[in-house]
Specification:
3 helices; alpha+beta; about 90 residues; two-stranded antiparallel sheet; globular
Amino acid sequence: MDYVWMDTVHVWQGDATRRALGDVAGAATFLLTKWPRAFMDTDLHRAAQLAALDALDGHIRASAFRAAFVSAAAEAGILVEETPSAAPERR
């Protein structure tokens, strides 16, 4: 299988497990198998699933799928908010 890479998205899987997703197929599998049950049938979740299929088929860019995935993950409360890393101190 050819991987369709995307910028990594970090999500919470369960209460304490942080998961990094860096390809469309892996994120699509997460949408189908690890998604919080209470958010499995929302409009954003369905939109992310459809976007995954479109990205895997080459109809949209991986970045468009990533945006849909991030929106659905935020709705489900599993998106890990990224904070910019602090610049190293100069001496």
